[in-house]
Write a structure and sequence with these properties.
Elements (H helix, E strand, L loop, with lengths): L4 E2 L2 E4 L3 H12 L4 E4 L7 H4 L15 E2 L2 E2 L11 H12 L6 E2 L3 E8 L2 E8 L2 E7 L1 E4 L6 E2 L13 E4 L13 E5 L3 H12 L4 E4 L9 E2 L2 E2 H7 L13 H6 L16 H6 L3 E3 L2 E5 L2 E4 L3 H26 L21 E3 H4 L1 E6 L3 E2 L5 E2 L21 E3 L13 H20 L15
Parallel strand pairs: 1-9, 2-3, 2-10, 3-6, 7-23, 10-24, 12-21, 13-14, 13-21, 14-17
Antiparallel strand pairs: 4-5, 7-8, 8-9, 11-22, 15-16, 18-19, 19-20
Length: about 425
Amino acid sequence: MTSADYVPVVVVGAGQAGLSVSWYLGRAGIDHLVVESGTPMHAWADTRWDNFTLVTPNWHCRLPGYAYQGGDPDGFMTRDEVVEWLAGWLDTFEPPLRTHTRVDRLRCVAAGFELTLESPTGTESLRCAQVVVATGGYPLPILPPFAAAIDPAVAQLHSEQYRNPAQLPDGAVLVVGTGQSGAQIAEDLHLAGRQVHLAVGGAPRVARRYRGRDCMTWLADMGVYDTPAQQYPGGKAAQEKTNHYVTGRDGGRDVDLRRFALEGMTLYGTLIGGKDSELTFAPSLTEALDRADSVYNSICSDIDRHIEAAGIDASPASRYEPVWAPAADPIGLDLAAAGVRSIVWAIGYRPDYRWIEASAFDGGGRPMQTRGITEVPGLSFVGLPWMHTWGSGRFLGVDRDARHVAEHVVAALSSATVPDTLPQNGVRL
C-alpha cells in the first residue's frame, strides 16, 4: 500500500445521487473525487430487464442543471431511454471521476478519514476530511435461507439478474414478490405467454391514472413526495413498506393481479418455505389482494379530497371493484408437477456497510442520519430511500437531497456560512 494521498472530499459512488453532489461541489469550487467501482450510473443498464420502464412520469426526472425536455412529459422512459438521458446529463459537466475502483475500507483517523482503494493497478490509500457515501440504499439482493434446499434442477435468479423471458428455461416460472420489480417481471413473463406462478407479498398498489391525470402527478401536487419523513403519516412503519406496484409499460397502466389470475396466472400468498420440489405458502393471498385494493381506493379518496378542496374541475370519481377472488388460499406447490423450471426472486435488498468503520448505523445496519448527515463528523450519505422524504428514492428528490448534503460539506470545510453562490439547477442563488 502506498502512502495516503489527500483530497478534501471523497464521494463514494457515481450514480445519479453521488454525481449530483459532485455537481454542486464543483460549482462551489470544492476539490473532490468521485470513486466508482464500475462506470458512472452503470446500474441502470446492468440491473434492469429489457422491457423495464420508469413507473414515475418523465417530468419527475430532474437532476442538477438538467431536466427532462422530451415530448412526452407524462409518459414513462424505457431503460434505454433513461440511460441515454443520464448520458446527456453527464455530458453537461466534468466530475472528477475515478472509475473501476472499489472502496474496501473506510475508517476514521485524525482530522478525517482514510479509504482503502482497490483497482486494477493495485491497493492504495486516500485521506480526506469529508466522505459522502452514495452507494445506494440496499445493494445486496435478498434470497431466503431455504433457496439452497430447492431442487437444483430449478434455475434460480434474483430480479436484478432478470433480463427477458428467453433467458429462462422453457416451462412455467415462479416469481416471488410483488413489489414494483416482482409485479412488473410477472407481467413481462405473462405478456410473453409464459405460465406464471406468483407469490404475492404485502406490497400495496396504486392506480396509474385517476380522474384525468396520472396518480403520481396528483400526489406530487398534494405535496406527498415533499413531506419530511418525520412528519409522514404512519411514521417509521410507513417508510419500511414496499412501494406501490404499477407499471409504465405501453404508456402506463394499472397492475391488477386479479386480472392476471383471470387470464391464467396462478397466485399464492407469501412463500414461507421450500425443499426439493415442494414449496409452502402462508394462507395470505385473499388478505394481501384485499389490502392492496384498499390502499388503491384510499389513495383515490385522498385525491378526491384534494380535488374538492382545491375546486378542481376533474372527471368523476370511481373505485376499484375486484374482478376475481380466490376460492381458497393455496398453501402448497409442487414445482415438478406444475412444470416450474425457474424462480425469479424479487424480495428486495439489504444494506451492506461493513466496509465503513464508524458508529453511524442502527441495529439493522442502516445509516442513522438526518437528511443524509450523521453524528460522525464528516460522514454523510445521499441516495437513500426515505433519506428526507418519499421523493428521496426517486429522480424527483435527488437534486434537493444532493444540494443539502453539498451545502453541509461546503460549510464544514469552510467553518463558515455556506456561500450564497452555491447554485440550484444551474441558477445562482
